[in-house]
Structure formats: structure tokens, C-alpha cells
Amino acid sequence: MNNTYYGQLIFEHSKSGRTGYSLPHNAWKEHDIHSLPHHLIREKSAKLPETDELTVVRHYTNMSNNNFGVDTGFYPLGSCTMKYNPKINEEIAGMPAFTSLHPAQWDHAQGALEIYYNVQQILSEIAGLSKFTLNPYAGAHGELTGLMIIRAYHQKRGDAKRRKIIIPDSAHGTNPASAAVCGLDIIEVKSTADGTVDVEDLKPLLGDDIAGMMMTNPNTLGIFERRIPEIAKLIHECGGLMYYDGANLNPMLGVCRPGDMGFDIMHINLHKTFSTPHGGGGPGSGPVGVRKGLEEFLPNPQVLKDEKGHITLKTAPEALGAVSSFLGNFNIIIRAYCYLLSMGKEYIHMAGKLSVLNANYVKENLKSHYLLPIAGLCKHEFVFDGLRPEYGGNHHTPNHITTLDIAKRLLDYGFHAPTIYFPLLFHEAMMIEPTESESKETLDNFIEVMKKIAEEAKDTPDILKTAPHNTPIGRPDDVLAVKAAKFTY
After folding, report:
1. What kind and span of H or E run contains 485?
2. What is the DSSP string of 70-137?
3. Alpha carbon distance 379, 364 (integer Å)
4. How many contiguous H segments (helices) and E segments (strands) does the chain have?
5. From first to last of its 489 residues, what are the pLDDT tens digits of the chain?
6. Which of 247, 305, 340 is nearest to 131 (CA)?
């Protein structure tokens, strides 16, 4: 790439008087700018870059080549399941029959409604729950919707004092955030040394003011919560409901179901589990499912099949009301439907099993160089606590090699960094999730690079401290990069 374009803004290419277009003269004088109401006309012209077309094309093409995504390289983000999105799903979702459909046509679009209904049914079967809504726009939106259902359930029973939600200390950050937005009080339950919920710490928290408990299984450490049935029994006996954060559903596919474990409500991240586009702020989808007896609280409109086999929209007075415009992000739902149909009941379980196999393969090959705080079988992801001490990973010593140093150095080798400094249970947390999409060759390459970085940390630590070396921007001041829109590098 031409270094001229590295790190520059399009405004920096601007030359006064230069243009990249030529417009015809206005043949309709009555519609020129002077005919507009005065209060709508700018006092000063907008400050726009003045460049030729070729400069614009080169600038944005070169900028786009700096983007990193699952289509360009390995993306081992922990707790985010960055799996590959099959291109046939994109092609089908882009068919004119779908893209030209206006949301106001829902009542007369039986084909589109059937897709929506079928996805509801498939997700219900996978989750072991009674019914789903696909209306929420994202996972956190689904969390909020699920928590609103919990509140509505207690309020209908006249039990308004239940305002406390129990959340493990290893939970995703959206859990307490969603609960707070819903007006609930957050009660934290501690983890044991093996990373699972401490049931003995949970018991004293229970009472007649508990609305429910949010859990992720496997949890954010990639550990299966083996005492789920006991935890669910305790929560139900005190009158609360169990909420399943579906962010880590991927390794469970076709193997076990949240509904069978005792969960009453859950959300699913379609972008994490069912291979729809991920990141960039959207579009997303966070379907919410409920057990039998809670269906009435699902938001409007609800998609149902009548006795004649017609798919209809129902607005129920006892429901939450609308949580999104129309029926959520329909084109994302189409992509998930394509993925579900292509996998089928016969092969959906392979996604879960292969994600677990890949994670354990990487973990076992790297634990000789990186500190593994919790030994044993993981599920889809695992967490290292930085480098082992013999490779410079002692965080009690000055100028030790940090997880941030490792993440920066990975960029030089063409890999996106894994999730770092989360969960907060470990000082130098580095969470890795390879997903089932990656080949053994890719994983072997990643393992080799991670070991090489560990050796560099021991022999030539300055290489890590000054990394990355091969990117358009080196290592900016972290605080300044957050606070200032433009910074010096």
C-alpha cells in the first residue's frame, strides 16, 4: 500500500478548487436553492474535502484494506464466537424478493412470515423452550426484553417487591447493565476456585425479594456450570426465575438445552451462534425464548399459525408491547434460517462438538507457555492469565510483559488479538475462542505464533513493548486515544 494514504484523513488530500464531478445546468430554475425557505439555507457552505475522483477511490480502497475481519484472517475473540458467515446465506438474503419487501406488507407476505415462524420453531427446539420472539435487535436488547418479562411476570402476580437480580461475578458486562436499565437491583454472587458459581455464597442471597438469576453456561471462563440443576431449584423455590444469557450457546448446540437445565427465559445472539454478520454496531438480532406459561408476556406483534395453517400477526393486550419496529431485523433472520437449514438436525451438534475440540486443542498446546489458572476440560473458550513466569509473565515485577503487549505483537503476525482483560477475575486475562469454523492448519499456525511471541518475551522483550511494527499506526497513548478524536503517533 502507498504510504501516502496511511493514517490520513480524506480532508488532508483536499486541494482548494479541485473537483471530481461535473453536474448539468439546472433546467428547472424554480427549484434552485434560492427558492427554499430562508431558515433552511446554510449561512456558510459545508466544509467538505475538495478532491478528484481518483484520489477518493484510492484513499478509501487503501483504507478498506486495513480492515480486519473473519473473511481476512483468524479472529479468536473470546466470548464473541466470531465464526465464518457462509456466502450463500448472504446471496439468499440479498434476493430481490426479500430486499424489496416493505415491512408494512407483513400481513400479506405469507412467505416472509413463514420464515419468521419457522425460525421461532427451530430455536424453540434447540433451546428446549416453548416459544420465541425474533423482535429484539441485538443480544443486549434481548437481555432487556427477557428481564422485562421477568418483571411483568412478578407484577402480574402482585409481587412487585421482587426487584433484585442475582448475577455471577464472571458474567458478561451486559448482564448488570441490562438489569440496571430494567430498574432492577444487581446482587453479585462469587465464583469458586474452579470458576463456577459458588452455591454456598448464593444461598444467603435468596429471599422473597429475588426476581431471578442471570447465568451463562458455559460461563465466560468456558467452564460448564455443573450445579445448574441445584441452582435452578434454589432460585425457583424462593420464587425467582432463571435467565440464560445465550452468548455462549455455540458449544451446546444439539448437545444440551437451556430449557432442560431449568432456565425459564433466554436470549440468543444470532450473530454468535447462527452465523450472521457480527460487529460494527449492527445489524443484529437477539431472539428471546420462554418456557411454557410465560408465552403471554412476549412482545408484540407475535407471529402465530392459525388452525388453517395461515401465519398471522397477533397483538396481545397482556404482552410487553413493542420492543422494535415491525419484526426486528428480518434480513438477519433470513441468514440465520439459511444456516439452520444447511446444518439441519443431523449436523447442528457438530458445531458444538468441534468448537469444544478446537478450544481444548489450542489450550493444551499453549499451556506450556501461558499461565492456565483453571485446569481441566473447557468448552468453547478458555482463559490464560498472561505468560508463565519463566517467560516474563510475573505481573508483580516492573516492566513485565503484559497481555496488552502480547495482543499488540499478534497484529504483526496477521492475527487479530483475542479478548484481553476480561473476565475481570484474573489480572492478565486473555480469553481465546477459536470456533468450529477454523481448520487445524489455522490453529497450528496460531499456536506456533503464540509460542514464538512467548519466546520473544523471554529473549527480546523490547520487541513486544514497542509492537505493533507492521501496522499503519503503531502504539498510541491509550488514554489519549480514548479522549482525543485525533492523536499523534
Report:
1. none
2. TTTS---BTTT------HHHHHHHTSHHHHT--GGGGGG-HHHHHHHHHHHHHHHHHHT-SEEE---S
3. 13
4. 15, 12
5. 445 555 688 999 999 999 988 888 777 766 666 678 888 888 888 899 999 999 999 999 988 888 888 889 999 999 888 889 899 999 999 999 999 998 888 778 899 999 999 999 999 999 999 999 999 999 999 999 999 999 999 999 999 999 999 999 999 989 999 999 999 999 999 999 999 999 999 999 999 999 999 999 999 999 999 999 999 999 999 999 999 999 999 999 999 999 999 999 999 999 999 989 876 556 789 999 999 999 999 999 999 998 888 898 888 888 888 999 888 899 999 999 999 999 999 999 999 999 999 999 999 999 999 999 999 999 999 999 999 999 988 777 777 899 999 999 999 999 999 999 998 889 999 999 999 999 999 999 999 999 999 999 999 999 999 999 988 888 888 788 777 765 444
6. 305
Q: Which residues pair with 322 in a beta bridge?
A: 300
The helix (H) or strand (E) run that includes residue 232 is helix 228-237
> Which CATH number is associated with domain 348-483?
3.90.1150.10
> Which residue spans within 116-256 are E strands per DSSP?
131-133, 164-168, 185-189, 210-215, 241-246
DSSP secondary structure, 344-394, as one string: HHHHHHHHHHHHHHHHHHHHHHHTTTB--SS-S--SS-EEEESB-GGGT--
* Residues 228, 261 contacting (CB under 8 angstroms): yes
Q: Which residues neighbour 416 within 8 Å (Cβ) at sequence distance 6 or greater?
A: 68, 73, 74, 75, 76, 77, 410
For the chain, report the end-to-end CA distance as a whole number of angstroms: 19
How many Å apart are CA 428 and CA 457, to the nearest integer? 15
Phi, psi of 188 (to 5 degrees): -90, 135
87-342 topology per CATH: Aspartate Aminotransferase; domain 2 (3.40.640)
User: Cβ neighbours of residue 440 under 8 Å, at least 6 residues apart?
Assistant: 361
For residues 221 and 377, the answer to whether their CB atoms sit within 8 Å is no
CA atoms within 13 A on the CB side of 145: 34
Domains of the chain, residue spans = 3-64, 87-342, 348-483
Question: Length of the chain, please?
Answer: 489
Angle between helices 440-459 and 330-366 (to 10 degrees): 50
- Find the helix or strand (DSSP H, E) in which 458 lies: helix 440-459
Strand order in the sheet with 419-420: 382-385, 429-432, 419-420
Task: For residue 246, give the amino acid letter.
Answer: G
Query: Which residue, among 218, 251, 171, 278, has the nearest Cα to 435 in the 3D structure?
Result: 251
